[in-house]
Write a structure and sequence with these properties.
This protein is an alpha+beta fold. It is built from five helices and six strands. Helix 2 crosses helix 3 and helix 2 packs antiparallel against helix 4. The longest helix is centred in the middle third of the chain and has 15 residues.
Length: 153
């Protein structure tokens, strides 16, 4: 989806009045410093209820121990006001309509051959996120497996 289309539906990128804080239903470790715990994130208010519901369902399906073992709790960020890497369009993160999970093992250019989230044990997680409206770029385009966004790619 182009920036102009997202603006029509969700407002201007970086517009604080469109954001809310969503409390995670389980502790999320900051991916680059696993000792730091995130209890909430800033997310677009239109997307917050579905993201919270998805994480609650992930917790119910996997349980906290398995969520942590699989690294589903490794938080790479949600809101980041910036353009797409190598592009001129705004990143979906600029609207807080995207979230990155376990970026260290699901890097931007990785394909299903190496990305952790392409493995069978993560199928339920991705199914749940997609059921709640969070599209996997990994599934859709076979790259950026860490990235889930509320708007269709």
């Amino acid at each position: 989806m182009k920036s102009a289309d997202i603006i029509k539906k969700y407002g201007q990128p970086g517009d604080e009045k469109n954001f809310t804080y969503m409390t995670f239903p389980f502790p999320m470790r900051i991916a680059w410093d696993k000792k730091v715990i995130a209890t909430r994130t800033r997310v677009h208010k239109a997307a917050a209820p579905s993201l919270k519901a998805a994480f609650k369902e992930i917790l119910a399906v996997y349980g906290l121990e398995k969520v942590q073992k699989l690294g589903i709790d490794l938080f790479g960020g949600c809101y980041n006001f910036r353009q797409m890497r190598g592009g001129k369009e705004w990143s979906v993160h600029s609207w807080a309509l995207a979230i990155d999970l376990d970026p260290g093992r699901n890097q931007l250019r990785e394909t299903s051959a190496t990305a952790r989230f392409a493995r069978p044990e993560y199928k339920d997680m991705i199914d749940i996120l997609e059921k709640h409206g969070w599209y996997s770029l990994g599934r859709a385009k076979n790259y950026d497996w860490m990235h889930f966004q509320f708007v269709k790619p």
